[in-house]
Design a protein that fits this description.
This is VWFA domain-containing protein. The chain is α/β, with parallel strands linked by helices. It is built from 13 helices and 14 strands.
Length: 420
């Protein structure tokens, strides 16, 4: 049974007459952290036409969206602005300490009343709302402005909307049927408009908004059960700086998976002069915990043996007692500089014979013949020129992990036939 978190709901039309602590208990949707790298500015109407109740609904919608969409490892950054006759940017995009600080800023936004000058607000938000994110010299993430309003604008919106879109902003509109046509004019497409029929229906639009914000299929094996182990060469031949590059690469890969006991489990083993399980498959139940633990994995030094490390994986990690799940596909990704791989051909075949797939990622001037023997008949080998270039091979590695065609060479791969 799915666990739910409960919080106060004060989104009814009488919400303004009640303190948040006096609301009804309703289930918060399961957390679905946004995976795409985007900057989002929510623009909330706070005019007389919207009404205090409508403004409270808009704030509650944004709060709920933030709670279910942002996590510690999320690459999405959020900002908030509100308007009536004038625009006020409460939180420029990304300029908040953490999610609780962002929610606190939302709570403090007062209702303003007055005219609904949406056109003026759009122009100002496009120029001011994205803060330092718009001034960075680095590759800029996709920028999205989400307008929430229940009141038709009292000024012209077509020109300001064209101005915002010319600044490479994606415009999305959330509102009632009364403003559908205007939102379509602002966003430039009916597909960019989310219409709700009542206070409760507004919150049902959150998954739809999440889909429109990212707009592309999420990478990784998001819906596939998988036991995934990373085996990192932490020997003196790699060195601490290159080992740190490996850690960063593993963190980046982990972002592409839905880490929880029902979908993807992730473990990490490091080896050098000795072999050490940094964390087992069932040690960390969330992606954020895996990311933290990966950063804390020790560099060991010494002379490494990939064969010894692979036997350790077989005997002490990929077992039911250590959290491996019967019937679930299993993959080991070995990242190595190539030294110490001469003794690994027999252990790697032992893993494959038990339905555990092994991909070898060799970095730098590796011992190619030794790694080819590890790759096996299916040529499960990726060669990377340098540790700094690992990031350019992420898609290739994800394709291998998620394609589902790897594993043992038998007609029926014995998932769950691994050592107990």
């Amino acid at each position: 049974m799915e666990a739910h978190v409960f919080q106060k709901d004060w989104t009814s039309t009488t919400a303004s007459a009640r303190r948040p602590s006096e609301g009804r208990l309703t289930a918060v949707p399961p957390k679905l952290s946004l995976e795409c790298r985007i900057d989002v500015l929510f623009l909330l109407a706070s005019s007389a036409g919207t009404t205090p109740e409508g403004f409270l609904r808009a704030k509650a919608f944004v709060k709920r969206f933030v709670q279910v969409s942002l996590s510690e490892d999320s690459r999405t950054r959020v900002g908030v602005a509100w308007y009536s006759g004038e625009l006020a940017v409460a939180v420029p995009v990304g300029e908040y300490r953490d999610v609780p600080a962002l929610l606190e800023s939302l709570d403090s936004l007062p209702f303003r009343g007055g005219a609904t000058l949406t056109g003026s607000a759009l122009r100002q938000a496009a120029e001011q709302g994205f803060g330092s994110a718009a001034r960075t010299g680095q590759a800029r993430p996709r920028r999205v402005l989400v307008l929430l309003t229940e009141s038709p604008s009292q000024d012209e919106v077509a020109g300001p909307a064209r101005h915002a879109r010319a600044r490479e902003l994606l415009l999305l509109g959330v509102g009632t049927e009364a403003v559908r046509a205007e939102l379509e004019e602002i966003t430039g497409s009916p597909k960019h408009v989310l219409v709700y029929t009542g206070p409760r229906d507004l919150f049902h639009r959150i998954p739809e908004l999440q889909g429109k914000l990212c707009g592309q299929p999420r990478p990784g094996c998001q819906a596939r059960s998988l036991d995934l182990l990373f085996l990192l060469d932490a020997s003196v031949s790699v060195g601490p700086e290159n080992f740190a590059q490996m850690q960063s690469f593993v963190r980046s890969l982990t972002l592409q998976f839905d880490v929880n006991p029902d979908v993807t489990q992730v473990g990490l083993v490091v080896y050098g002069g000795r072999v050490r399980t940094a964390f087992g498959l069932d040690t960390h139940l969330t992606r954020a915990a895996v990311l933290r633990a990966t950063s804390q994995a020790p560099y060991l030094g010494g002379v490494g043996s990939a064969g010894t490390a692979l036997l350790h994986v077989y005997d002490k990690v990929m077992t039911v007692q250590r959290g491996a799940r019967p019937g679930v596909p299993k993959a080991v990704v070995l990242l190595t500089g190539g030294m110490g791989a001469e003794d690994a051909a027999v252990p790697v075949q032992k893993l494959r014979n038990n339905g555990i797939s092994v991909l070898v990622v060799g970095v730098g001037p590796v011992l190619r013949e030794a790694l080819r023997r590890l790759a096996g008949p299916r040529d499960a080998l990726i060669h990377v020129a340098s540790y700094a270039d690992l990031r350019y091979h992420q898609d290739e590695l994800l394709t291998w992990i998620c394609a589902g065609e790897w594993g043992c060479a038998r007609p029926q791969c014995p998932w769950g036939g691994y050592s107990a």
